[in-house]
Amino acid sequence: MVLLPFIFPCREGKRENMQTGDKKICVYIIREEDSTLVENLPHFLESAFHRKIKVVEMQMSLDFAYYPKRKQYCSSVISDKLKTIKTEQCEHLLAIVSVDLYVPELNFVFGEANSQTKVAVISTIRLRQEFYGLLQNKQLFLERLTKEAVHELGHTHGLPHCPDRKCVMHFSNSLRDTDFKSYSFCPNCKKKLGLKNR
Questions:
Q1: Would you state the pLDDT for residue 105?
Q2: How far apart are the first and last CA of the chain?
Q3: Which of 111, 104, 98, 100 has its CA nearest to residue 153?
Q4: CATH code for residues 24-192
Q5: Lower Cβ count inside 10 Å, N or C end of the chain?
Q6: Domain spans of the chain?
C-alpha cells in the first residue's frame, strides 16, 4: 500500500476529546539530524488525531532495506521490520527516515503505510527543496513533512485517499499536490475518524 503525503496547524487552548487513556501514536525518528522535527511534530499530530504522541530518536541501521542497483531503500522492508519492534503501548507507529524510499512498482515514494499493521514510514529526502537543486526553505519542508506524517497516519487509522483536493488525505502525485493541500482532514474524513467538525 503506497501512500503519499499531508498537515495540521497547532491549535492553541484546550484540546477536545484528547484520548489520554488510549494507546499512543509513536513516532520513531531514524537517522535524522534536524532537532526541529522532535520539537514541533508532536503538537501537530496531537492536534490532528487528538491522541498522545510519543517521539523517540533512534540510531538504527537501515542497510537491511538497501537495494544497491537502485541506490534506494525499500519502504515495505522497513515497515515489516518496524512491525516486529513495535511495542504494545504503540497502537500506531510512524517512522521518519532520511533515506530515499521506493517500492518495486514506482521510482520512489514519499511514504508508505499499512492499515493492518498500523505502521507507516516516510522519508524527508524528497520533501526538501535542496533535493531539487533549490535553496533551502525550512518552513516549507516542515509543512510538507507534517502533511506527509498526518496523511500516512490517516491511512493507519483506516482512511482511504480522499477526492477533496484540499483534504490532507488527497493522493499526491507530486509535491505540487502536497503543497496545495491544507493541513486538515475534510469533514467527511473527520467523521470517519470520529472527530468533531469545527
A1: 87
A2: 31
A3: 111
A4: 3.40.390.10
A5: C
A6: 24-192
Q: Is the pLDDT of residue 154 over 90?
A: yes
Torsions phi, psi for 94 (to 5 deg) = -120, 125
Residues 6+ apart with CB under 8 A from 23: 88, 89, 90, 91
pLDDT attached to residue 93? 95
In Å, how far are 4, 48, 144 from 172, measured between CA atoms? Answer: 6, 19, 11
Cell of 143: 509543512
152 as an active site residue: the answer is yes
Query: With b meaning 16 or more CB within 10 Å and e meaning fewer, what string describes 115-144?
Result: bebbbbbbbbbbbbeeeeeeeeeeeebbbb
Q: How much is the CA Rg of the chain, to the nearest whole Å?
A: 16
- Which listed residue (32, 46, 112, 152) is catalytic? 152
CA 158, 151, 81, 74 dihedral sign is positive
Output the pLDDT for position 43.
Answer: 87
